[in-house]
């Protein structure tokens, strides 16, 4: 590994100011490494609705000094509950109280995506070694040996020691590094909406993360913003759409797809007049997402379906791991990026694969559904938590000091 003195004088360029890009800037700053974040949107902000955060993400917030600001804005639910959306019966619940916190040392939380993004953005703004540039869409990245040159669509040039592509599912940087074309639509459509709690039927105002599993459909609801709002996410199978997201959904199609669900589910769907639609896409896992001084992070590296609620979580884990490896390599970014992807690809690949499996599980019909319900309802809480340990438990490669070892 080459050792370079004064390497912390040179900035790293981060393409994309979403949750992953800002977490990367912050994690690098905690190691004394300056960065320039470049965002194509006119403002640094998140759209969308709620997001779930497992204890594995709180472990990263601890490393980034963000436990307190995130906790102030989050809701800590009492249970993860799965209901059968045809019979209306409860299938299983996992309490998130003391036993859960004892096992994983951190809580499970629900937060508005915009609030999490704001916490990261505020922390970045407080750092004097993070620069933030909006309204610049990166179109060109060149590794010229001694460093990196990045150009935006409007002709603005940036120079840095290395580049991190945190530019999401439709990543431009990925097409320079991996060159594997567009992500693949999963054939699943998501409609999302946020409802004021006053409009949520009183009997469903649970302080829980509730998933109604159906046949080729499911509905999720949970409280946000200290209980002021409810997040609703409805998913159904459809090959009608090719790509795209954040357009308005067609409620008629939604109601057709959920026609076989029980009355409470249909009542909840009827509460929303305007839904935003996402056509879900992912990619198969890969193990090599770096080339020299260019690497990828978050959805750009390993986009996944949302069924384990871990895409943002994985991007935050990536950020911490990458910054640790950069510090351990003393500015030899090519070596640091190889060490980072080596430490991450099996974990993120497992989450990508298991997210697809969970999708099948939530949408099961016939014998598969019967087996799912029997299996989950007969499981003890201790067994359920043991089954989550791979995801929520401590990861050796993410503990402080792991990179140096
Ligand atoms: C329905 C749904 C529910 C989800 N629920 C959860 C959940 O509960 N928990 C969880 O952890 N995850 C969840 N996720 C996943 C999570 O939203 C993503 O994994 C996460 O946002 C990825 O963050 P990112 O920073 O890698 O990418 P993004 O959030 O996509 O950010 C990329 C940024 O890069 C910018 N950009 C793109 N191209 C360029 C360019 N050329 N130049 C400059 N800027 C550029 C974009 O404008 C954007 O700001 C969910 C996803 C969906 C669809």
Plain-language structure description:
The protein has helices at 19-30, 55-64, 67-73, 98-104, 113-125, 172-177, 251-257, 263-270, 311-328, 333-362, 366-377, 381-392; strands at residues 12-15, 35-38, 50-53, 79-84, 90-95, 109-112, 130-133, 138-143, 148-152, 157-160, 162-165, 184-196, 209-213, 217-224, 229-237, 245-248, 276-282, 290-291, 294-296. It has 405 residues and is of the alpha/beta class. It has an eight-stranded mixed sheet. It has a six-stranded mixed sheet with strand order 7-2-1-11-19-18. Strands 8-9-10 form a three-stranded antiparallel sheet. A hairpin with a 4-residue loop joins strand 8 and strand 9. Helix 2 packs parallel to helix 9 (311-328) and helix 9 (311-328) runs antiparallel to helix 10 (333-362). The chain is globular. It starts with 11 loop residues before the first strand and ends in a 13-residue tail after the last helix. The model has no long low-confidence stretch (mean pLDDT 94). The structure holds flavin-adenine dinucleotide. Flavin-adenine dinucleotide binds at residues 15-21, 38-41, 51-52, 137-138, 166-169, 172, 190, 192, 233, 278, 298-300, 306, 309-313, 315.
């Amino acid at each position: 590994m080459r050792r370079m003195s004064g390497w912390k004088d040179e900035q790293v360029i981060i393409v994309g100011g979403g949750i992953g890009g800002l977490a990367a800037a912050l994690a690098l700053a905690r190691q004394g490494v300056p960065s320039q974040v470049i965002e194509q949107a006119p403002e640094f902000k998140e759209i969308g609705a709620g997001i779930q955060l497992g204890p594995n993400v709180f472990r990263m917030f601890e490393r980034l000094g963000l436990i307190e600001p995130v906790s102030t804005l989050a809701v800590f639910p009492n249970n993860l509950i799965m209901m059968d959306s045809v019979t209306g019966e409860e299938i299983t619940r996992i309490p998130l109280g003391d036993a859960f916190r004892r096992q994983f040392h951190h809580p499970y939380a629900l937060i508005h995506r915009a609030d999490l993004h704001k916490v990261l953005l505020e922390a970045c703004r407080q750092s004097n070694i993070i620069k933030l540039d909006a309204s610049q869409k990166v179109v060109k990245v060149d590794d010229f040996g001694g460093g990196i040159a990045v150009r935006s669509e409007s002709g603005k040039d940036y120079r840095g020691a290395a580049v991190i592509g945190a530019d999401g599912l439709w990543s431009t940087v990925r097409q320079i590094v991996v060159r594997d074309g567009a992500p693949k639509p999963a054939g699943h459509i998501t409609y999302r909406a946020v409802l004021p709690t006053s409009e949520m039927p009183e009997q469903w105002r649970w302080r829980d993360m509730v998933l109604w599993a159906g046949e080729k459909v499911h509905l999720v609801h949970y409280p946000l913003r200290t209980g002021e709002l409810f997040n609703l996410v409805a998913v159904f199978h459809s090959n009608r759409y090719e790509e795209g997201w954040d357009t308005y959904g067609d409620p008629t199609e939604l109601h057709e797809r959920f026609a076989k669900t029980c009355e409470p589910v249909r009542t909840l769907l009827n509460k929303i007049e305007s839904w935003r639609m996402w056509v879900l896409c992912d990619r198969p896992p890969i193990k090599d997402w770096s080339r020299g001084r260019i690497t990828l992070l978050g959805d750009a590296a390993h986009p996944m379906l949302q069924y384990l609620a871990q895409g943002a979580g994985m991007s935050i884990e990536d950020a911490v791991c990458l910054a640790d490896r950069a510090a351990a390599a003393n500015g030899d970014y090519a070596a640091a990026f190889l060490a980072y992807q080596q430490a991450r690809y099996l974990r993120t690949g497992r989450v990508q694969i298991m997210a697809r499996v969970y999708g099948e599980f939530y949408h099961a019909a016939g014998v598969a559904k019967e087996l799912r319900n029997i299996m989950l309802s007969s499981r003890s809480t201790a067994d359920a938590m043991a089954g989550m340990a791979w995801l929520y438990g401590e990861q050796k490669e993410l503990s402080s000091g792991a990179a140096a070892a």
